[in-house]
Structures are given as structure tokens and as C-alpha cells.
């Protein structure tokens, strides 16, 4: 009886964790459809490993005070922005920020990682080495948001996979 209870509990935890993980096409499935950068812009990838630690903590990610996506376990998204200084942030019980300079044509990778907080977890933002980040993103799900005047990448990925009505 005790073994059955443990098995049921583990199954429930697995289902709960699966519900917190990002869903969407993998990088390798959609990367070819990403738009080219405008000459005066750079690209910023935000990503989070698929660890179950802190999986329920999924705050909005802001760039220069505007929401650009969510920190979701196993997910990534990107935004293209003009060259210059940028402020990324995530807020739970406290706000964590990262300031960086983006050059035209440059790609930056921002890792969003859960850490322990007083009442709830926190998301820490840090720049990641491009080679290391690019290797990790290959396994993650695209959770991108559309930008006015830009192709909605989630819808594009669904069209490519024949599921246009699911976008």
C-alpha cells in the first residue's frame, strides 16, 4: 500500500511538472523561419533550462519596461531591438534586473534561472556565453510572442507543421 501511494504521488508530481514546462516547436524546427535582423537592430534570446526546480515560478520578462515574454522552464523566445542600452527584468517578490548594451547585428543570450526567495522563488537574469547558450537552446521549446509588424512565429510554426488552427 505504501509503495502504491508513493507511486501515485510521484505520478502526480510528474503531471504537475509537465504542466509547468514550455510547449511549442523546438528551435531546430523553427529556426529557419526566424526573420533576418534589420541592419540597425540586434537580437536578444531569453531562455530557461527545463529543470523542475522552481517550475511554478514563471514571471513576465520585461525589456525596457515592456513585457516581451515569460520565463518558462524548457522555453526560449527572442526579440529584435535597436542597438543601444537595454534593461531586462523579472519580478516575483522582488525585481531582478540585467542591464546590457546591444550592438547592431549582435545577438545576446539572457539566461533566466530560478533561485530561492523568502516567500516565492525569484528569477535571476544573466548574460550567457553565446556558444553555450546556442547549444542549450537547440533542445528548448519556442514560446515567442509576436511583435507588431512582424511575423507571429508561433503561428508560423503551426502552419509549417499543418496545425494552423491551433495557433
Quick take:
The chain is of the alpha+beta class.
Describe this structure in words.
- This protein has helices at 2-20, 27-30, 130-137, 153-160; strands spanning 41-47, 60-63, 66-70, 75-82, 84-91, 95-102, 107-115, 122-127, 141-142.
- With 167 residues, the protein is α+β, with helices and mostly antiparallel strands.
- It has one domain (2-166).
- Strands 8-7-1-4-9 form a five-stranded mixed β-sheet, with helices on one face. It has a four-stranded antiparallel β-sheet with strand order 3-2-5-6, with no helix packed on it.
Fraction in helix: 10-25%
- Beta-strand percent range: 25-35%
Q: What's the multimeric state?
A: single chain
Average pLDDT works out at 77
- The low-pLDDT segments are 2-19, 146-167
Distance between the terminal alpha carbons, to the nearest Å?
44 Å
Q: Indicate the overall shape.
A: globular
Tally of extended strands? 9
Largest sheet: 5 strands, mixed
Number of helices: 4
What order do the strands of the largest sheet run in, or round the barrel if closed?
A: 8-7-1-4-9
Radius of gyration: 17 Å
Amino acid at each position: 500500500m505504501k509503495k502504491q501511494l508513493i507511486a501515485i504521488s510521484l505520478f502526480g508530481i510528474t503531471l504537475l511538472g509537465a504542466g509547468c514546462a514550455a510547449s511549442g516547436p523546438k528551435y531546430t524546427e523553427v529556426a529557419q523561419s526566424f526573420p533576418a535582423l534589420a541592419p540597425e537592430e540586434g537580437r536578444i534570446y531569453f531562455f530557461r533550462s527545463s529543470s523542475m526546480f522552481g517550475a511554478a515560478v514563471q514571471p513576465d520578462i520585461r525589456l525596457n519596461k515592456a513585457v516581451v515574454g515569460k520565463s518558462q522552464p524548457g522555453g526560449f523566445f527572442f526579440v529584435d531591438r535597436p542597438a543601444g542600452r537595454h534593461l531586462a527584468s523579472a519580478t516575483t517578490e522582488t525585481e531582478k534586473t540585467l542591464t546590457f548594451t546591444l550592438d547592431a547585428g549582435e545577438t545576446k543570450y539572457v539566461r533566466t534561472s530560478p533561485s530561492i526567495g523568502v516567500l516565492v522563488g525569484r528569477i535571476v537574469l544573466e548574460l550567457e556565453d553565446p556558444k553555450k547558450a546556442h547549444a542549450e537552446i537547440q533542445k528548448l521549446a519556442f514560446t515567442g510572442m509576436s511583435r507588431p509588424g512582424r511575423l507571429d512565429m508561433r503561428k508560423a510554426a503551426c502552419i509549417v507543421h499543418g496545425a494552423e488552427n491551433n495557433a
